[in-house]
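ok posting inputs for the cobalt (II) ion job
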Amino acid sequence: MSTDKKILVVYTSRSTGNTLKVAEAIQQGFGAQCDIFPAADAPKPDKYDFIIMGFGVYRGWADGDLRAYMAKCRNKNVGIFMTLGAWPDSEHAFNCMGRAEGLLSSCRVRAKFICHGRLDPAMVERMKLRPAGAPHSWDEERAKRVVAAETHPDENDLAKAQDIFKTAWEKIISGTAPKSRKKTKEAILLAAFGTTVKSAAAAYDNIERMVKAAHPDTPVFWAYTSRMVRNKLDKSGTKVKSVRGALNDMFLEGFTSVKVISLHVVPGEEYHKMLKEINTFSMPMAGFEKLEISPALLSNAERLNKLCDIVCACVPSGRKNEDAVVFMGHGNHKGRCELNYLAMAAELKRRDKNIFLATVEGNPDFETVREELKNAKCSKVYLMPLMVVAGDHACNDLAGAEDDSWKSMLEADGMTCIPILKGLGEYDEIGQLIAAN
Ligand code: CO
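and the output
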């Protein structure tokens, strides 16, 4: 008798009906083997093998009825889905999901799904009346979010929800779902800014090779911190996860101990964005048992020296002492990590007076270095990116044909430029330094 396997969808849904829509879609996806009830009327969890619980986020939590039902679920295979007005991949969304998971701490969460839900129009009108600056008041950011949520959950969301929970169910009945979280299961997550330049990905491939060589028994996953890069890749059919998305998948796969290896050059904006995303997964109930994060490449004196050793050795051997070398770092217009770059520029200069470092967006800036180059009377300059990949900045800002590329400007100053368009990650020594984290 196959009817002994039973699935239950339990939900709480408010006036918008967003959560109900998703709940019904999931139930329809399973058909006769699946029951569906609002949390207040739901039967006891005992006879079900997979209980999928859904709610619309209200003040950061599920409604009381569902919370009470969650408390009744012990040692069950469960799924959680959530609709909310905030961005589904926001910190807020993951924190809300984390709270729900906390209530299900004795259960095994097999699948999770979060999607946008249209806000109640009456609530939107009330928000518009709130004074500026008050909590949930109206601003451009909120307006954008409300519009984005307007059409959700849509057909695509419903299909995705069906698919996620069906896949989880198949794993449960086939016995391939992770057994328990008691056994330590390690993984590595490589977190990079990301690139859309195909040739630049060689740097990432090389780093992955080095990391796998250093950790042969540990599965390696990828995440890109740049939403812009991810969206662009998505349009061309390549899906790369955000840090949160990747950690979420790894958690569901049963990994308990994760080492996040940062591919960032400095602990700047992107690095901190990454930390924030990781934070969500260090919550006591919904997090990993162990979650380590590696430092950025240029984050302390020891690493600074090591990095200088490596990049100086990467300068082509044909370079003569009187030839200049200019490294292009990224930098930040708000001055983040400026001191790291200034320290590196000083150390490079100390080692060799004709090696320079400038950044695209911050200090040390290119104009200063350009002056120094004029004074140094170098007639030949090697241009090299101090970035993990030779992506957009290297191809365009450093070596592009436009008048405002560093190459064009230095050529206008009468210098011969030799761009070396290799990302740091393409050098094995850098890959090894990253892998040694
Ligand atoms: Co940039």
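notes: The chain has a mean pLDDT of 92. The pocket of cobalt (II) ion is lined by residues 330, 393 (CB under 6 Å).
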